[in-house]
Amino acid sequence: MHIHFDIFTLFPEMFGGALDASILGRAQELGYLSVACHNIRDWAEGKHRITDEPPYGGGGGMVMKVQPVVDAVESVLGDARGAVPVILLTPQGRVFDQRIAEELAQHARLALICGRYEGIDERVRELVVTDEISIGDYVLTGGELPALVLIDAVTRLIPGVLGARWAPEDDSHATGLLEGPHYTRPPVFRDLAVPETLLSGDHARIERWHREQALRRTFERRPDLLKRTKTNLTEQDRQFIERLRAEATDPGREEP
C-alpha cells in the first residue's frame, strides 16, 4: 500500500527536516509514502505574488486569498478532484484522533491545505475543501504543524511501515487504552527495580501484567477512554477495573 500527500502551504521549507527523518523518511525510501509540497505563492497573481489581504468588514489580521489556494488545488489535483479528500487544517475542524487517522489511511491520496494568518477566504471551503480537521483546542500559527501530525499518524498505519515488531495496533489509543509502563536494562537503577513479573519468564503472567497496567494507567489518566472501549473489555478486565475503583474509593484498602 502507498499513500501520497499533497501539501498546500505558504511555507514549504517547514516540512523538510520532519519528513526526511525517522519513520517518515524510511517510509518514503521504502515506497510506502510520498509527499509533494506546493507553494501557494506560485499560483498568486500579479508581480508581488500576494496571497493575503485585509478582510472585508474590518477586523484584525489578514486573510488568505481565495484565488491562489483554489487555483493551486485545482491545478495539482486535476482530474483527480472529487476522488481525493481535500482537508483544511483549521481550529474549526473535527478534532483529530486515532479513529480519524484510520479512516484517512484508507485513501491512496490526500490533499492538505495549511491555513495561515487570521483565516482563509470562506470561498475556499465552498469550492475545494471536503473535510476540516483540528489537532486540538488551542491556537497555532498555521496549519503546517497539524499537517505533519496528521501525516505521521496516518503513515504509521500503512502496513509494513513499522515492521512486524512495532505493530501500530498495540500503540496507545489504537486499542482504546493507554499503554502501560515499559522497562529495559539495567534491572535496577538508583534503587528503582524493574517489576519482578517482567523478569519471571512467565509469558502468560507478563501478558496479563501489561494488560492490567494499561487498564490502570487509562483508569488513572484517561477514564473517559474506558467508557468508549467497553466492547473490548473481557470479564477479567472488568473485574480488575472494579478493583481499581475500590482502591480509589478506599486508598488504604489492601490488595486481596
Strand content: 15-25%
Number of domains: 2
- What is the end-to-end distance? 49 Å
The helix content, as a percent range, equals 25-40%
Structural class: alpha/beta
Low-pLDDT regions: none
CATH architecture of the largest domain: 3-Layer(aba) Sandwich
Mean pLDDT: 92
**The CATH C-level class name of the largest domain:** Alpha Beta
Strand order of the largest sheet: 2-1-6-5-8
Under CATH, the homologous superfamily of the largest domain reads SPOUT methyltransferase, trefoil knot domain
Radius of gyration: 23 Å
Overall number of strands: 10
Order of SSEs, N→C? EHHEEEHEHEEHEHEEHHH
Shape: elongated
Biggest sheet details = 5 strands, parallel
CATH topology of the largest domain: Alpha/beta knot
Topology:
Layout: E1 3-9, H1 16-20, H2 22-29, E2 33-39, E3 52-53, E4 63-64, H3 66-77, E5 86-95, H4 98-104, E6 109-114, E7 119-120, H5 122-127, E8 131-134, H6 144-155, E9 188-189, E10 192-193, H7 203-221, H8 223-228, H9 235-249
Parallel strand pairs: 1-2, 1-6, 4-7, 5-6, 5-8
Antiparallel strand pairs: 3-4, 9-10
Helix pairs in contact: 7-9
Question: Any overview of this molecule?
Answer:
The chain is α/β, with parallel strands linked by helices. The chain has 2 domains: 3-164, Alpha/beta knot, CATH 3.40.1280; 188-249, tRNA(m1g37)methyltransferase, domain 2 (Trp Operon Repressor, Chain A), CATH 1.10.1270.20. The protein has 9 helices and 10 strands. The protein has helices at 16-20, 22-29, 66-77, 98-104, 122-127, 144-155, 203-221, 223-228, 235-249; strands spanning 3-9, 33-39, 52-53, 63-64, 86-95, 109-114, 119-120, 131-134, 188-189, 192-193. The strands form 3 sheets. The protein has a 5-stranded parallel beta sheet, with helices on both faces. Strands 3-4-7 form a 3-stranded mixed beta sheet. A two-stranded antiparallel sheet has the order 9-10. A hairpin with a 2-residue loop joins β9 and β10 (192-193). α7 crosses α9. The longest helix has 19 residues, at 203-221. The mean pLDDT is 92.
